[in-house]
Amino acid sequence: SQKIEQNSEALNIQEGKTATLTCNYTNYSPAYLQWYRQDPGRGPVFLLLIRENEKEKRKERLKVTFDTTLKQSLFHITASQPADSATYLCALDEPSGAGSYQLTFGKGTKLSVIP
Amino acid sequence: EADIYQTPRYLVIGTGKKITLECSQTMGHDKMYWYQQDPGMELHLIHYSYGVNSTEKGDLSSESTVSRIRTEHFPLTLESARPSHTSQYLCASSEVRGTEKLFFGSGTQLSVL
Description:
The complex is a heterodimer.
Chain A: E1 4-6, E2 10-14, E3 19-25, E4 32-38, E5 45-51, E6 56-59, E7 62-67, E8 72-77, E9 86-97, E10 100-105, E11 109-114
Parallel strand pairs in A: 2-11
Antiparallel strand pairs in A: 1-3, 3-8, 4-5, 4-9, 6-7, 7-8, 9-10, 9-11
Chain B: E1 4-7, E2 10-13, E3 19-25, E4 31-37, E5 44-49, E6 56-57, E7 65-66, E8 76-78, E9 87-94, E10 102-104, E11 108-112
Parallel strand pairs in B: 2-11
Antiparallel strand pairs in B: 1-3, 3-8, 4-5, 4-9, 5-6, 7-8, 9-10, 9-11
């Protein structure tokens, strides 16, 4: 099965800087990769989806890249704010038989933006 | 804000009790899921459903069962709760089978004493 590694369990950065989170996977390349935000005691919230034929995707202060050669996705938050503090999860599709796919999640990286 | 609701938010119960965790969505999504998540760990898929009368087991073995009698409702039942069942249970749904963008509920934090 697919193994997903997110660069670190915790990342602390200064307000206003760019946060960069890494997601690496080990096996086959997924058709698409997703990023979610999870706040303590809450369910994850979808942020961005990037397909295997897309190099980069942007949404406001968020940017995602997808390198199928390196088997890696980078998630950037520019001009970070304390409100961006949360755990960010990487997820990708994995075949579950009979032509269907399920999402496999990484453990996440806990981002803390320090004022 | 996703229109998917889980009740209860917190549940503390004794060993051996039967419990049902409720999940409802008002988005008309065909596919629904149950994930289990322990603190600092990844989400593990325990059950999913493609639609009414469809239920499948996920990657993580679970002693729980699910049913899907109505599109909007996907309850999870534990016949006899044990301390090893203590965890957070997250329900989710998705609209388009191809992209699998998930909408999650707020979760139920279950503690079995």
